[in-house]
Amino acid sequence: MTEATRGWQRPSIYDVAKHAGVSHMTVSRVLNGHPNIRESTRERVLKAIDEMNYTRSSIARALATRRAMRIGVLVDSPVQYGPNSTLRALESAARDVGYAISAFSISEDDELQIDTGVVELVTQGVDALCVIAPRASSLDLLRQQSTGLPTIVIRAEPDATWHTAAVDQRFGATLAVKHLIDLGHRSIAHLAGPLDWYDAREREQGWLDALADAGLPAVPAINGDWTSDYGYEFGRTFEFGDITAVFASNDQMALGLVHGLAERGIRVPDDISVVGFDDLPDSRHFLPPLTTIRQDFAALGSLALQLVIDAIEGEDGAQHDMIAPTLIVRSSTSAPRV
Question: Which intervals of the chain form a coiled coil (predicted)?
C-alpha cells in the first residue's frame, strides 16, 4: 500500500503489524534487532514498512511512547458543513504533529451507530477519542460508553465528563443580531436549526440575549432543518408583518430564504435584511452576497488537538476552551426602510 492510496492517514505500528500479518510486538522486536525472530518474519515486517512508505523513526516514536500515534474521531452528521469542516481541520492539525486520524461517521437516521463507532475506534488502538457530536441524543448515548481513553467533545458548553472545545456559537449569534440592531432593526426573526443540535440551541440563545440586551421583544423562533429547501419554503410562505430582518442559523437556510423572498417580490436587503451563520465558501457569491458569521475551523482543529494531546500526555491543560467567531458584513443587510 502506498502513501497515495492511504490518503492523509499515516500508518501506526498496528497498521504495519496488520499488513505484515504479525503482532505489533513482533514489529517492535524486529525494529529493536531482537535475535529470536525468524529471518522470513523479519523480511516480511521490513517489506511491510517499505510498502507502507513509513519511516522507522516514526514507528520508533510510537514504540518509545507506547502509543499508536492515532486519534479516533467519531463524527455525527458528517454531511453537514460544521461537522465536516471540523473533521478536516482535525486531520490537518494532526498531520502537523505526527498523528493520524481514524474517523467513524454516524448518520442522523442511525443514532445507535455510536456504540459501533466507539467499539471500532477503540479496537484500532487509538490513543484518544475526539467526538464531533452536535446532537444531544448522540452525547446521551456516548455517556453510556466507558473507554478509559482521554476524550474531547466538540461542543460550546463545558461538560464535567469530557474535555470540550468549540467555536463560541452564542457569541457569534449575538454579533449577528447586534449588527442588525445597530443598523436600526427592531423586529428581528430567527430561523433556527433543529434544537436537538447544541449549536442551534446556542445560536438561538445568542439571538434572545442580544434582543434582551437592547430591550427588544422576541417573536417565536422557527425551527428549520439546516437545508436550503426549508429556508426557501419559509421565505415563500411566512407572513413577516413588521419584521424587517431575519437571523438564519446557517448559510444554507439563508440562501433558501433569499430565494423564497425573491419569488414573492420581497427584496433583500431593501425589504428584509438577512444574516447567516458559517460563512460557506460560496456565501460571498450569493445574490446578494451574504452577511454572515465566520467560524475559524482551522483554529478549532488546532485547539482541540492540543487539548487532547495534553490529556494523552497527562498534562493539566484546559478542560474547556473556545474560539471566537467573526462577523462578515456583505450586501444582504442594510438599514430598514423608514
Answer: none
> Is 182 part of any domain?
yes
Residue bearing the bigger pLDDT, 98 or 200: 200
Q: Say if residue 5's pLDDT is above 70.
A: no
Query: For the whole prediction, is pTM greater than 0.85?
Result: no
- Whether residue 239 contacts residue 219, with contact meaning beta carbons closer than 8 Å, is answered with no
Reading the block at residue 222, the C-alpha cell is 422557527
3-state secondary structure of 181: helix
Residue 164 C-alpha cell reads as 470540550
Structural domain boundaries enclosing 141: 70-166+297-321
Residue where a domain stops, chosen among 44, 65, 86: 65
For residues 21 and 32, is the Cβ–Cβ distance under 8 A?
no
Angstrom distance (rounded) from CA 149 to CA 312: 8
Question: Is cis: bond before 269, omega within 30 of 0?
Answer: yes
Q: Compute how many other C-beta atoms are within 10 angstroms of the C-beta atom of residue 282.
A: 12
Find the radius of gyration of the CA atoms of the chain.
Answer: 24
Say how far apart CA 30 and CA 70 lie, in whole Å: 21
